[in-house]
Amino acid sequence: MNIKSFTFRNNTQNWQIEKVRFDNLNLLVGSSGAGKTTILKALVLIFNVAQGKVLPLENLAWAIDFSHLGQDYRWEITTNSIQDSFSSEQIRVEISEEKLIKFEDNTEIEILHRSKTKSKLNGENLQKFKKTESAISLLAEEESIAPVTEAFKRFIVKVIPQELIPSIGVDPSNMHVLLDSEIEDSNYFIHLEKFKDMAADAPTVLTAYYLEKIFPKTFDEIKDIYTGIFPNVEDVRVNAELKSDNRYALLIEILERGSANWISQVEISSGMYRVLTCLIDILASPEESVVVIDEFENSLGINCMPQLTDFILDKSPNLQFILTSHHPYIINNIPWETWQLVSRTNGMIRARKAIDIPALDTASSLDKFTQLINFLVYEGGVA
Question: Same structural domain for residues 75 and 119?
């Protein structure tokens, strides 16, 4: 999936996001409170609704343009608060309007249209269905909807607290049956892509466990990059530990050079943990995924920012990245053409591409970050 653009409006709280246009690599910058994280949260909500996750919706409206496997689409939704007929105090939120359109040769073809009174799929009338859930998730197995459903699964935003230890009720070493045939060098990458699709929404540590056990080449790639960033680390593994409740706890562990004792993820420095999980999540993302990282610099020391930044730049042709950052190093070392300057005026959040702002497109040798700061100060805020 590749997000082309989106708009979003919250009528309950009286704020909106003006149309934001995305490229493969996008760095949202701006003053604190400008709306960078709000943009990401709006996207997360859209993707959760598409996947059928039950959420406390408000009076919302959005339109998102995206492509998947070479096909362009637009998905629009409007929700409204409805007074419950059985209770004078109970109010529920329903989807009052929903459209799914695909574009072929500059022609709009309506796949789905759902209103308060009727619903149609490919021009055929549908029976009524749940008004609190998106038709994309309800009709996920329909031939014309299935590619869109798969597209919305490729939205990678994993923020798992370091102290959270996932556990599963079955021996993970027996779960290789997820793959239906033997993996050989000739079909390694075919099976790897299949696994990535299956694991897109899985906890990072579980994904890492199967990479280590079933796809060691990919896990070794992660280790090589990680030990290159942190030369004091000799090895990385994922340990499955059987607990007293007969559940298996999964922990990432590292081994430092000259030491015989493995260090559990809860004892690894926050920066080292963040870098490792970031590498795992990105290398395990299916092609055409959207990878979202809020406050990219969080917990990172200057010693690991260059390599992780370069790593993301290297992967951006095959994945779409939407990042936010305040850090001068991050901003200065991600091409300025990818910057999007976010500002908020009253309830309107706006993102402008740096290349469209003449004040930043100058031949001056002045540091681009300094130019950015000066522009933001002029606009009324400091990054």
Answer: yes
